[in-house]
Amino acid sequence: MGQLFVCWTGLGHGDCSAMQQLAAQGLRILESNPFTVDWMRRKVSVIGAGKVGSTIAHLLALKGMANVVLVNRTVGIAQGIALDIAEALPVEMSDVEVVGTGDYAAIAGSDIVVVTAGAQRKEGMSRDDLLKVNADIISSIAAEIKKHAPESKVIVITNPLDAMVYLVKKVTGFDRDRVIGMAGILDSSRFSSFIAEEVGVSVKDIHPLVLGSHGDTMVPLTRFTTISGKPVSDIVDKAKLDKIIERTRNGGAEIIKLEGSSAFYAPASSVVRMIDSILNDRKDVVPCSVYVDGEYGLEGVFIGLPVALGSKGVDRIVDLKLDESEMKMLSDSAAKIKSLMQQVDAMQLK
Question: pTM score, two decimals?
Answer without folding.
Answer: 0.86
